[in-house]
Amino acid sequence: MRKFTLSLLLLLLAFYAGFAQCTSAYSSASYALAHTKRALNADNFDHQMLYADRGVAAMEKAKVLIEDCGCQPALNEIVNGLDNLSKATDPEDWKAGRFYTQIALEHMQLVMGALDRCTTGAPEIETTSDLTASADTTTEYLAVNNTDLSDEQARLEAEKRRLEEQQRLLEEKIAQQRAMAERAKMAREQELEEQLVIKRAAEVHLAAMEESLKDLAESLGCQKAMALLNGSYMRSDDVLNNENLKETRNYYIQQTIRMQRDVAAALESCKKP
C-alpha cells in the first residue's frame, strides 16, 4: 500500500511538473505568436523583418520549453514554424516575407492547439495533411516566384541599361556645353584684345587731332572752339566689357565725327562780320 501511494505520488508530481513546463511553453509560444502576427501586419519591409526576427528568437525559447514538457505534436509544429519564419527574416522581397510569415503563423496556431491538448490531456489531432499542404504550397510559391523574380531581374537590368545610356548622353551633353563655353570664352578674350587695340590707337590719334585743332583755334582766336577740345572721348578699359568689337569701333568713329563737327560749328560762330 505504501509503495502504491509512493508511486502514485511520484506519478502526480511528474504530471504536474510536465503540466507546469507545458504552461510555461504555452506562455512563451503565445509571445512568439504575437510577434509573428506583428510581422504579418507590418506596413513596411523593415518592420516585417524586425518582428520576424523577434518571433524567431521567441520560437527558439518556446521550442526548448516544449521539448522539456514532452508535447511532441507542438514540437513538430514549432520546428516547421521556426523554419518558415527564419526565411522571413531576410526574404527576397516583402511579398516573399509575408508568404513565409503566413505559413509560420499557421504553424504557430497549431502549436497553441497542441499545447492546449497536452495540458488538458485531449486526444491528438492529425496534422500531417496540413503540413503536406503547406510544403506543397511553398514549393508552388517558389516555382511561380522564381519565374517572377527572373522577369523582375530582367526588367531591372533593362532599366539599369536605360539609365546608364541616359547618364552617358547627359555626360556627353555636359562635355559639349563645356567645350562650347570654353570656345566662347576664348573668342570673347580675343575680341576684347582687338577692342583694346582699337581703343588705344583711336585715343592716340584723337588726342593728336585735338592738339592740332587747339593750335588752330588758338591761332584763329576762337575760344569757343578751344573749350570744346577737352578730351571727352577718353574712357577706361573696363567699359569694353559691356560692348562688342563693332560697338567699340563705332564709338570712336562717332567721336572723330563729333569733334570735327563741333569744332567746325564753333569756328563758324567765331567769324567776324
TrEMBL record:
<feature type="signal peptide">
    <location>
        <begin position="1"/>
        <end position="20"/>
    </location>
</feature>
<keyword id="KW-0732">Signal</keyword>
<keyword id="KW-0175">Coiled coil</keyword>
<protein>
    <submittedName>
        <fullName>Uncharacterized protein</fullName>
    </submittedName>
</protein>
<feature type="coiled-coil region">
    <location>
        <begin position="146"/>
        <end position="219"/>
    </location>
</feature>
